[in-house]
Amino acid sequence: MVRERFAGHIKKIENEVMDMGEMVIAAINRSVQALKAGDIPEAKRIIEEDNLINKKRLEIEEECINLIALQQPVAVDLREIVAILYVITDLERIGDYAEGIGKIVIMLGNEPPIKPLVDIPLMAEIAINMLKRSLGAFVSRDVKTAEAICNKDDEVDKLYDQVYHELLTCMIENPQTISRATPLIWASHNLERMADRVTNICERTVYLATGSMREINVSRY
Amino acid sequence: MIISVAGLDKMKFVPKIETSGLNLYYGDFPALKNINIRIQERNITSIIGPSGCGKSTLLRCFNRMNDLIEHIKVEGKIVVEGQNILNPDTDLVLLRRKVGMVFQRPNVFDLSIYNNLRFGLRIHHMLNKKEEIMAAIQDSLESVGLWQGLKDKLRKNARMLSLEQQQRLCIARVLVLKPVIILLDEPCSALDPISTLRIEELLRVLRQEYTLVIVTHNMQQAARVSDYTGFMYLGELVEFGDTTKVFTNPKEKLTENYISGHFG
Lengths: 221, 264
Known about the structure:
Radius of gyration of chain A: 19 Å
Mean pLDDT of chain B: 93
Strand order of the largest sheet of chain B: 7-8-9-4-10-11
Mean pLDDT of chain A: 95
CATH architecture of the domain at 15-107 and 177-259 in chain B: 3-Layer(aba) Sandwich
Number of domains of chain A: 1
Low-confidence stretches of chain B: 1-11
Order of helices and strands of chain B: EEEEHEEHEHHHHEHEHEEHH
Oligomer: heterodimer
CATH superfamily of chain A: Phosphate transport system protein phou homolog 2, domain 2
């Protein structure tokens, strides 16, 4: 390889994106656990630590800009840096959704839950799995996996429908539950948005690997 | 115009070369105007700017190559490793051994590869024993990535080499003399893009041991290869700073306009 130092730079940025991905995955996990347990101190920590994710994004963004300015990347290298700029934007946003769930935990306060949460943790589980796999596919430029992950978005959408209707029914039957049910709809909406953002990452993988920009799966929401 | 002194804000900035109030006149024409620059040790510093801005003149000040030009007047100070090299008692032969130079076109001698490298050693009366000479030659060729390919061809004429190999040999010819600083004047402008990238990689390796100053028309090369960049215009050092900073957010509007191609 002629430009080893440059290749090393790109690899380093790629690793940082993976680190950022780990941070975001941890945030989603913790936010849903906090929601299940009504753990307000943990929710506060999650909100505070979202800054670390935002900071990481800015660091990676700066490194990408420097690499464009100094190393004049072309072809696959250029596509990768551009793709990374989008991926970190999506990751940062997913982190914001996790932070949002933290805020919902605080909003719900110490009120008893309407019912034990089942579908919401399941949505989180699928979203996290999608995110993990999408980052793996990005690094290995695996178009097939990227496309397959997008189909998983439908499962999250379906669960969201389910949660939404269930909570609506709950509220209609007993208006007393409105203040506790509405935030849960928001939480599930956040999870639905996360999965959508993952499909953006998958689209960037396709762009990176093939150079073509296309929407793989148009979400119903 | 603000003249910034490089790296004052940086910790651990060890200047290998430092000029103060450096003026140079070709006859009455001022080619360098009040240059204050500090070249950081074991780093690559690029000097960029349009043709005739004085960048090559500045480079040639660092080993007093300008002395060869008639009607020249130099004022100010050029301190290389603690010594003002403008002092009349400066040993120019020693200075030019310590501050080696590589030029635009590979200027190999019409001699064998071995004798190209031996030449400087002989002039500087360095090393007498055959084994020591051979070891020094091997060392310098290894440093520029030529040893493996050429170790059995040392008696062949250096002109048979490709341009990239010739330029590597020119760098080896400097290295064999154990310099401290290497000046490079457009070292890649005669080379194709891939050879250019390979030479740039070599410069990054050499940076670990030597202080390099490179003058280049090719701004992208300055961006890719150097740690510090100076921008010169009409004999003045307009801006000097961290390469990343100069190429992403320069302090001076003039620098910004030049590197973004809005003038020049």
